[in-house]
């Protein structure tokens, strides 16, 4: 194989996942044609392979939230500054990242318009209008849209881009209990997106005060971890807003005793970042590795021609295989291009992460079998033609499960339980996801950040897991020596 | 019934469709809760009943274009002025309506960014990059997104708003024939959206030069007509761009003879305007009338209680009916609210346009039957419980078909064939959709516009229909007296 040609045609990666992770990531998302760089910094084109994954996640999530009686809506993407300012912590968090429209055509606008960063300040004035009595509750709306955050730091395709696609759900309840229950139900859907669809293991937990969304009481999240660089990454979040916004936006209702009461609110969202996390966890030095459930092409069928032999029989067998698979709703494609070498085709489909490659050649034709290559572990399996559909179905399930299992094993190997500061520092140097007993004081997290700051960034709390190990009485915080109140995951983060 | 209370609670319309159409329209879209006015002029909130119609149209259209091998993508919504300017006619058309982002946070941006109006100038630089050889063609991409046109004239909810949702398809072909064939195939899908889903009859045709999208060779459209005010409205369009953009954006490929050739392009889109057209055609003085295929609630089941009688049996029968209907995938809901009068419930569901109302009372309970009221024509039908599901299914189909038939009949009654200027003027005064022989000269259309301009606007060409009546030799243009070249529809327009 001619490596030089492959690199030039984008079929081989220059960078290695374990050597220079960030360059590897940038290279793989572009070479696998998930994204294309755009000529405005921090913006990226989402190409069909990325958008089709997004559509698969939408097709799962939208019906699930409709079962919960969440309705679809669409609010304008521009907001007046006066509304954006109403909840101060919310505004302070977003202020540096606002994109402002100040002109239309040749004219200056009378009032500057902020482009949607998140729609609390856009939506809640109308919740105030629409909610009157307890029969108007709960009010649960969701929209699929773009959002813009003009981040100042280094943008990363899919992970931290200045425009992204997401869903944002906004709900208002009569009671705190209902709000809290919904937040957990949504978080479970986010877990399923990661674990069942993207084959990425996540930990459910509560973010620290420093990472709580501006204006929220607390933020719950599903947290993923990237072993190769030892960084946590927030996968998706539900924000329990309590009555903070209700107070500022005057969202009240008359309860059954005809007393004016403020509503309890949540907001929750997941974005195209999900796709970036999937790439980081599963990609390898050959390119993307796609879990079958989200792969727009699950099986690529490739004819293996022989010199000086009429290939019609091989091509017919390939076509027949594709047809059979498609009839069973397996997303199979035929690569019949005769101007590319076999090696080039292999490299291309490996780069794009197609879960299964089916090769049909002269030998297989004689033996009435095909050769299947798994993208996830490289295993080659011969399958009798008669069993093709059944075996491919099994293999797709197996690949999906194996990808989650392997990712979970790798993630779990990174988890290090510590009790002391020395253990913490050692684990951090080893890029672990560190589980330590913690006094739950904001100032101590700030101290830890300061003490660990270096060119790779500082350590922080990733989350305090819902699933808490036992905390024997007398356990001390690893950082402050004060009595520990809970276990938290620590590490560097995106 | 207490009219005053109904008007105050938004359950009765103040305006009449035949008396003051525009006020009626504004009132009905808000009262039926399709939209809510927003505090920035020209922007509207799309409420669940509107977005759910949009989702239904998406669920039809997206799989259809995927069968045509159109792939999904998402391009950034900001574009540099230098790209926007490249195709002059395109830029000139959009220039007055551009929303400009000039600041991020507190800082001025180095370059001003235009918010997406339509994505030709955003997408085609990348077509130039991605298209190299004939094997890269056709390239067919579609995105579902928002777009912003800061229109200066009066905004109309859903019909002409400053932000709207749409799909925009962009395709590039090796030959003009392939491009033209695709444009017709897409136009047929647009016809089906209007006729099969929204029950709105449309005419396929070519727009006049004056209404051709800036940068296109010609624009084909599906044209609807609103009898009550005698105005045409463009429903959706395909733009045949020829090689104009290919030249400006340098989109070339090496054809099979290895010669550099420019691609042939189309762009095509339909927007949330579809929903506004549906309201204008079908709405009445009681509110919205929804075609069953797009109604998120197709059947509302209402218990009819009797004074001093235990209503448990009635309520149970209602619940059982909803359950049965839902099991057969009919979108049925129960209105069990006990704090609203029957009259109020009727008004509310009429306002929201729910196709069928099923009433279950004591009498029906005894006779084992229910009473069904059709929203489209007010007919009341008794149905035996045993036949409920079958009969409701039939009725839903019947309502869908009847709405299209009635709308087509009303539209057809507005079509007036004319041959002379006097006939034209008379027909225009009668608010007709005027079919006349036409010399196909741009300057004559401008003359007609000038001659007919009054406070209601000027007459213009709505479209030249694909389906051309016979044009006997010697037929003269109704406006210029020159030899006629084709038949065109004329009238006032949105």
TrEMBL record, chains A, B:
Any one GO cellular component localisation term in the record: cytoplasm
Keywords associated with the record: Aminoacyl-tRNA synthetase, ATP-binding, Ligase, Nucleotide-binding, Protein biosynthesis
Record field: catalytic activity: tRNA(Pro) + L-proline + ATP = L-prolyl-tRNA(Pro) + AMP + diphosphate
InterPro entries named in the record: aa-tRNA-synt_IIb (IPR002314), aa-tRNA-synth_II (IPR006195), aa-tRNA-synth_II/BPL/LPL (IPR045864), Anticodon-bd (IPR004154), Anticodon-bd_dom_sf (IPR036621), Pro-tRNA-ligase_IIa_arc-type (IPR004499), Pro-tRNA_ligase_II_C (IPR016061), Pro-tRNA_synth_II (IPR017449)
Entry protein name: Proline--tRNA ligase
GO molecular function: ATP binding; proline-tRNA ligase activity
BP-aspect Gene Ontology terms: prolyl-tRNA aminoacylation
Residues covered by the Aminoacyl-transfer RNA synthetases class-II family profile domain: 42-291
Segments crossing the lipid bilayer: none
EC number: 6.1.1.15
Class of this enzyme: ligase
Coiled coil: none
CDD domains hit by this protein: ProRS_anticodon_zinc
């Amino acid at each position: 194989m001619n490596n030089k040609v492959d690199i030039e045609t984008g079929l081989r990666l220059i960078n290695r996942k374990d050597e220079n992770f960030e360059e590897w990531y940038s290279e793989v998302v572009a070479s696998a044609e998930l994204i294309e760089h755009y000529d405005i910094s921090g913006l990226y084109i989402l190409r069909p392979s990325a958008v089709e994954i997004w559509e698969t996640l939408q097709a799962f999530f939208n019906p699930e939230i409709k079962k919960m009686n969440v309705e679809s809506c669409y609010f304008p993407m521009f907001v007046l500054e006066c509304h954006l300012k109403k909840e101060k912590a919310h505004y302070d968090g977003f202020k540096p990242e606002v994109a402002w429209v100040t002109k239309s055509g040749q004219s200056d606008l009378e009032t500057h318009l902020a482009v949607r960063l998140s729609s609390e300040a856009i939506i809640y004035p109308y919740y105030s209008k629409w909610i009157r009595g307890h029969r108007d509750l709960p009010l649960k709306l969701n929209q699929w849209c773009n959002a813009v955050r003009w981040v100042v730091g280094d943008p990363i395709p899919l992970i931290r881009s200045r425009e992204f696609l997401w869903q944002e759900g906004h709900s208002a309840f009569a009671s705190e209990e209902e709000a809290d229950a919904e937040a957990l139900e949504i978080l479970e859907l986010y877990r399923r997106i990661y674990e069942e669809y993207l084959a990425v293991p996540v930990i459910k937990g509560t973010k620290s005060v420093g990472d709580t969304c501006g204006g929220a009481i607390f933020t719950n999240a599903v947290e993923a971890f990237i072993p190769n660089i030892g960084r946590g990454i927030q996968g998706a979040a539900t924000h329990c807003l309590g009555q903070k916004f209700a107070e500022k936006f005057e969202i009240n209702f008359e309860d059954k005793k005809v007393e004016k009461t403020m509503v309890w609110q949540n907001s929750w969202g997941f974005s195209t970042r999900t796709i970036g996390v999937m790439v980081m966890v599963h990609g390898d030095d050959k390119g993307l590795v796609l879990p079958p459930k989200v792969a727009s092409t699950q099986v690529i069928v490739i004819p293996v021609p022989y010199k000086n032999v009429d290939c019609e029989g091989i091509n017919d067998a390939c076509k027949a295989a594709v047809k059979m698979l498609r009839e069973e709703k397996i997303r199979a494609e035929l690569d019949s291009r005769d101007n590319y070498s076999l090696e080039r085709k292999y490299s291309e489909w490996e780069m794009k992460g197609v879960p299964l490659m089916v090769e049909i050649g002269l030998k297989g034709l004689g033996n009435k079998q095909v050769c299947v290559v798994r993208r996830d572990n490289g295993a080659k399996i011969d399958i009798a033609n008669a069993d093709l559909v059944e075996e491919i179905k099994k293999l797709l399930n197996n690949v999906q499960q194996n990808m989650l299992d392997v990712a979970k094993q790798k993630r779990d190997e990174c988890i290090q339980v510590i009790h002391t500061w020395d253990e913490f520092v050692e684990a951090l140097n080893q890029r672990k996801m560190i589980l330590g007993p913690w006094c739950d004081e904001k100032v101590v997290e700030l101290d830890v950040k300061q003490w660990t700051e270096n060119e790779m960034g500082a350590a922080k709390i990733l989350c305090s897991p819902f699933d808490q190990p036992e905390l024997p009485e007398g356990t001390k915080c690893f950082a402050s020596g004060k009595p520990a109140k809970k276990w938290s995951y620590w590490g560097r983060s995106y």
